[in-house]
Structures are given as C-alpha cells and as structure tokens.
Design brief:
- With 154 residues, the chain is mostly helical.
- It has helices at 6-16, 21-133, 136-149.
- The protein starts with 5 loop residues before the first helix and ends in a 5-residue tail after the last helix.
C-alpha cells in the first residue's frame, strides 16, 4: 500500500498541476466570442421583430389612409353628382319658366293685337256713324274710340 493518504494525494496532485494559461485563454476567448455572437443574434432578432411590427403598422396606416382617401373620393363624386343633378334640375326649371313666359307673352301679344283690332274696328264704326248722323254724341264716341285705337279721325 501506499504511504500516502488520499487527502495527501489530492494535495500532491494540486501542487504538481500547473495552471494552463493557454487552455484558460482559449476557453475565455470561446466564452466571450460565443456570448458576443449570442448577444448580436438577440439584438438582430429584436431589430427584425421591431422592423416587422413597424412595417405592419405602416401597412395598416397606409390601408387606413387609402380607405379614407377612397371614401373621400366617393363622397366628392356623390357631391358632384348631386350638384350636377341640382344644376340640371335648375336648368329644366329655368327652361320651363322661359317657355311659360314666352307662352304668356305670346298670349298677351295676341290679346293685345286682338284688342287693337277691336279698337280700330270700333273707331271705324264711330267714324261711319258720325259721318252719317253728324251728331255731337257720335262725334264724342268717335273721338274717344279713335284716340284709344291711336288712329287719326279727321
């Protein structure tokens, strides 16, 4: 058996082992590099996620703006159609009014011509009556009728 105890052997092994700086350096390099790569990967994932969220929000915003613009254009088209319909209705009313006025003026003109013809006829009648009778009453009737007709009575 050996003359050393187990504890003594452990102490002897510890004393004889030299600290290996190369192994420690390589292990430290690998650990730091791995942690740095892992940190960069996490940062990349975060940036990617934020970019995707921002892109989705931007897409939603663009869709909302497009919908708003489409609704605005639709409303403007409806307003334009309503305005054009109102203008057309007003034009139709104006044309109908002009036709009524023209018809009224035609009727007035015909009535005025008929009245003037009757006045001239009355004037001629009283001229003939006065020429036949030479009465003062007939002369007054002739004067008034011819004055109304705008006809000379001499």
């Amino acid at each position: 058996m050996s003359s050393y105890t187990e504890i003594q052997l452990d102490e002897l092994i510890k004393k004889t082992e030299k600290f290996n700086y190369l192994k420690f350096g390589i292990a430290l390099f690998i650990a730091l590099t791995t942690s740095h790569l892992f940190s960069d990967w996490i940062e990349w994932e975060i940036v990617t996620y934020k970019s995707e969220v921002a892109a989705k929000e931007l897409e939603k915003k663009l869709k909302a703006e497009e919908a708003l613009a489409e609704a605005r254009m639709k409303k403007e088209a409806e307003n334009l159609a309503a305005r054009n319909a109102e203008i057309a209705r007003q034009q139709e009313q104006y044309q109908a009014q002009q036709k009524r006025i023209a018809e009224e003026n035609r009727i007035k003109s015909e009535n005025a011509a008929e009245a003037q013809r009757k006045k001239a006829e009355t004037c001629r009648f009283w001229i003939e009556e006065y020429n036949k009778s030479k009465l003062t009453g007939d002369m007054y009737h002739r004067n008034n009728a011819c004055r109304d007709a705008g006809t000379p009575f001499n």
